[in-house]
Design a protein that fits this description.
Layout (H helix, E strand, L loop, with lengths): L5 E2 L6 E2 L8 E2 L1 H8 L3 H10 L6 E4 L2 E5 H12 L4 H24 L1
Antiparallel strand pairs: 1-2, 3-5, 4-5
Helix pairs in contact: 3-4
């Protein structure tokens, strides 16, 4: 992946990843990637430490891989839970910005 974290100069929104190159991960893949149980993943979503999955239709959901990679990097880097919550919140906010920009291109 190219620039994982990049600040956009044209707006006040931080560009976290290239939305045109997104891969979707299933819950089990996220569990393996973070070495956490399904229950631990759900607890981290509820506490705001992990961005929630997106709805893929029906009962199917998936996680945005670059978001999981960014959270994993924060964990490896030793960031505190409160810092990670702020980053997770920014990642969630970036979703709507990314969708609007994709629609315009």
């Amino acid at each position: 992946m190219k620039n994982l974290i990049n600040t956009s100069s044209s707006s006040n929104v931080k560009t976290w990843y290239d939305p045109s190159e997104v891969t979707i991960l299933k819950r089990k893949e996220v569990c393996q990637r973070l070495n956490l149980s399904l229950n631990a993943i759900e607890l981290r979503i509820k506490s705001g430490v992990l961005p929630p999955p997106i709805n893929l239709g029906g009962r199917s959901v998936g996680f945005i891989k670059p978001e999981i990679d960014i959270i994993l990097s924060c964990m490896i880097g030793g960031k505190e839970a409160e810092e990670i919550k702020l980053i997770a919140s920014e990642l969630i906010n970036f979703r709507s910005f990314a969708v609007k920009n994709l629609a315009l291109s």
